[in-house]
Design brief:
The complex is a heterodimer.
Chain A lengths: L17 H6 L3 E8 L2 E6 L4 E8 L3 E3 H15 L2 E4 L4 E6 L5 H10 L31 H16 L9 E4 L13 E6 L8 H7 L2 H7 L5 E4 L4 E4 L9 H5 L12 E6 L14 E8 L6 H17 L6 H8 L1 H8 L27
Parallel strand pairs in A: 7-8
Antiparallel strand pairs in A: 1-2, 2-3, 3-6, 5-6, 8-11, 9-10, 11-12
Helix pairs in contact in A: 4-8
Chain B lengths: L6 H4 L9 H11 L1 H16 L19 E2 L16 E5 L6 E3 H14 L3 E4 L6 E6 L1 H13 L15 E2 L13 H11 L1 H5 L9 E4 L8 H4 L2 E7 L4 E2 L1 H9 L4 H6 L7 E4 L4 E4 L9 H5 L4 E2 L4 E7 L13 E7 L6 H17 L6 H8 L1 H8 L26
Parallel strand pairs in B: 6-7, 7-8
Antiparallel strand pairs in B: 1-2, 2-5, 4-5, 8-13, 9-12, 10-11, 13-14
Helix pairs in contact in B: 2-3, 4-5
The chains are: A alpha+beta, B alpha+beta.
């Protein structure tokens, strides 16, 4: 049999529930009824209820089948996932909404993640399946969300809050515009295995991969030399060459970044900024990381005005005030010295003590 | 009872948030690879490093991407994950499913792999996590039988994604779902056969709320917008005020352009639409009362990316407004020109945004035939170092 190729994904219209087929593009407005529950109303008057639950992202086929059973029972077999690993049950029959929510809560599915809440953290593979991680992903997210659970299932925050995690600078989770980002980092230069470099690596490509120009050829060994004073431990060379591993139980850990946002509502998208340059990898529950994230979120929740995202709040009060309110020590690593560094330096004597 | 082999991971079965360890254990009951994955992960929790080898090229016939090779660096201890490759499976637009299709997918994955998945990966694909080399082709063949194709990996167009769009959102200014499907089908070759300098990501959001993070996360971002007036239902505005929404504090004062006024006596909201920058804040707060206009299209932005190699970038506006209607000819012609310029000029592992930085926005705009307009910049340059084409100086 010839292998079929290039046929593309299943056509989404075949997946839509009848209420969407009928009202496609004709939605008029929606209401947030309570945490985890939305209703969308169409021009026709038809209504569609959405019940959102958090998933652990890493799921078994048994879990998918269970979710399917629930969708069969309450949603005529229709559901969708969000860009942040939530499941959305799409309910056309109002009488089934509350029984569905009761069923989900009884069976341990967190109902929430809508409105002024923390939604499901986007995250990467970590030690479960990645070859360049500086930390785990699923484990930290689980530990953090156990601590922040009340903020997922309830509306206790001033605005949306997006927590994300990437286990190295590759940022498969693209966490660089999150209210709170947890990012795995290395702190030691690569340890060069010259035999592997000679056997497996394209030397010019490895040199070109270094963003700080720290790598140069070594004609004597037909391998490479790393200028350790210039190395910022990004791991790019290891991506290009297996002979340059950086992973190290002491060097590796977690950094915390805050104040980013994706949406253009009120203010343009922003990058998250480094506030804690290093916390240790301390499995299984990463208590230092969990406490830091909780502290930052609760400090924001206490001081921000309604609708003010983390970064908007900090822009109003100033970064210097953020550090005093959050009780976070300002470390030298927080001052940028990469390519666009001067844009972040202050040029006015107007600031707060 | 025997002592647990995974005491550290067992602690992550406790607590209110759903546990991935429980999921791994469920899969491990039926599958040796899932069992060894759990054991190897416990080992990482002890050692505080990962235990996967670097890379490895595997795939299916006819494709250069879609499968990520993965090998344990402790194959003697954990033989069932000696080979543990990932398959990226292209999801339907908007991640909509019916249960029949999902069950078929589960059956295929139980037959060929670990039974563990990510729903979904960060780029949007269904991630089938862990199978051996000899199962890759049979697994793909069975996926093809049920209508699931592979997504992107390596230096190709990565699986594009979009928001829920007109499927369930009144703010969708473009048909994100249909556009995504059309572009995915048009560019199957670019998706499946890596031939670019590096990865190229494309994301489509229906409005500036950008629910799929197109601006920060994609080389080519298509974001719905409108050109005419916000539609107001004055009765519903008054209802929001009567229901306790503080229109001055929560809406007018937070409007970035201060283009609105509120008359508390008559409960009338007035919007000076020409000054509105369509940020969505007021519409987000009063969806029953305010709606995007009717002359709709998209803003096209390019260059967004995560840090590797030369730092993270947010996408930049290159087309303030484009009509987005089938067969999407204007958009596709632009995409072709962008990719052609990048393909010709980009160095290995240089993303589009980095190339624009290196060669200059001026060169990029000229190559793709776009006029310079003020909507492209936050501010004009503040330095006197700029070029003239010789033919301009006569």
């Amino acid at each position: 049999m010839a292998t079929r190729t290039d046929f593309g994904p299943p056509y989404f219209r075949d997946m839509l529930p009848p209420v969407i087929q009928k009202n496609y593009g004709q939605w008029k407005y929606h209401e947030r009824i309570k945490p985890g529950l939305l209703v969308h109303v169409a021009e026709s008057g038809d209504r569609l209820w959405t019940v959102r639950v958090g998933s652990p992202r890493l799921v078994s086929t048994d879990w998918i089948r269970e979710v399917c059973d629930i969708a069969d029972q309450f949603c005529d077999g229709h559901l969708r996932f969000t860009s942040r690993h939530n499941v959305e049950f799409l309910v056309s029959d109002e009488a089934k909404v509350e029984p569905l929510i009761a069923y989900l809560q009884e069976h341990g599915y967190p109902v929430g993640g809508t409105g002024h809440a923390i939604t499901n953290p986007v995250h990467t593979q970590g030690w479960i399946h990645c070859h360049t991680p500086a930390t785990d992903a699923s484990g930290i997210v689980k530990a953090v969300m156990d601590e922040l659970y009340e903020y997922f299932v309830d509306w206790k925050l001033p605005a949306y809050c997006r927590v994300s995690l990437a286990c190295c600078l590759n940022m498969c989770g693209a966490v660089h515009c999150s209210d709170v980002a947890i990012l795995g980092i290395h702190r030691k230069p690569p340890v060069i295995n010259h035999d592997v470099v000679r056997a497996k690596c394209e030397i010019p490509n490895v040199i070109a991969a270094c963003p700080t120009g720290a790598i140069r050829p070594d004609p004597k060994t037909k391998s490479l030399i790393v200028n350790e004073e210039k190395c910022m431990y990004c791991g790019n060379c290891y991506t290009m060459c297996p002979g340059m591993p950086l992973a190290d139980p002491v060097g590796d850990g977690v950094s915390i970044w805050v104040g980013g946002k994706v949406s253009s509502a009120r203010t343009p998208p922003k990058f998250s900024r480094l506030v804690i340059p290093y916390l240790p990898n301390n499995p299984p529950r990463w208590p230092e990381t969990t406490a830091a994230v909780k502290n930052i979120i609760e400090t924001w929740a206490k001081h921000a005005r309604k609708h003010e995202r983390m970064g908007e709040w900090i822009d109003r009060i100033g970064w210097e005030r953020f550090f005093t309110l959050a009780g976070i020590e300002f470390k030298p690593q927080l001052i940028d010295d990469f390519t666009l560094a001067p844009e972040t330096y202050r040029s006015t004597p107007t600031f707060k003590w | 009872m025997a002592d647990s082999e995974t005491p550290l991971l067992d602690e992550l079965e406790e607590g209110p948030w759903p546990s991935f360890v429980k999921e791994m254990k469920r899969a491990a009951e039926k599958n040796e690879a899932a069992k060894d994955l759990l054991r190897q992960l416990e080992r990482s929790y002890v050692d505080k490093v990962g235990h996967w080898k670097h890379g490895g090229i595997v795939g299916v016939k006819g494709y250069g991407g879609g499968v990520i090779g993965r090998y344990s660096d402790l194959p003697e201890e954990f033989p069932a994950v000696a080979e543990f490759h990932t398959m990226r499976v292209n999801m339907p637009s908007g991640w909509f499913y019916n249960t029949k299709k999902l069950r078929e997918l589960c059956d295929v994955w139980d037959k060929h792999g670990s039974g563990l998945t990510n729903m979904h990966g960060a780029t949007g694909d269904i991630i089938l996590l862990g199978t051996s080399t000899d199962h890759l082709q049979p697994c793909f063949d069975d996926l093809a039988e049920i209508g699931f194709d592979l997504g992107g990996s390596g230096s190709d167009m990565r699986t594009p994604s979009c928001c829920v769009g007109p499927g369930r959102c009144e703010w969708a200014c473009i048909d994100t779902l249909e556009l995504l499907y059309d572009l995915t089908m048009t560019y199957q070759d670019q998706l499946h056969r890596p031939m670019f300098p590096y990865k190229s990501k494309m994301k489509i959001s229906g409005c500036p709320n950008d629910c799929v993070a197109a601006v920060p996360r994609s080389d080519i971002a298509i974001v719905g917008t409108w050109r005419d007036k916000i539609r107001i239902d004055p009765v519903e505005v008054a209802n929001y005020a009567n229901d306790g929404l503080d229109i001055v504090q929560e809406v007018v004062m937070l409007c970035p352009t201060r283009c609105m006024t509120w008359d508390g006596k008559t409960k009338t909201l007035t919007i000076e639409d020409a000054e509105c920058n369509r940020c969505m804040h007021c519409i987000n707060l009063m969806p029953k009362a305010l709606r995007p206009g009717v002359e709709r299209g998209a803003t096209i932005l390019v260059g967004g990316k995560a840090p590797i190699v030369h730092g993270a970038l947010l996408s930049w506006v290159i087309v303030p407004f484009m009509k987005i209607e089938p067969p999407y000819t204007e958009l596709k012609e632009l995409l072709d020109k962008i990719w052609e310029w990048w393909d010709e000029n980009g160095k290995m592992r240089e993303r589009l945004g980095e190339l624009i930085n290196r060669l200059g926005m001026r060169n990029f705009l000229k190559a793709v035939g776009l006029p310079a307009v003020p909507q492209m910049v936050k501010a004009p340059r503040a330095n006197p170092y700029y070029f003239w084409d010789p033919e301009e100086v006569k």
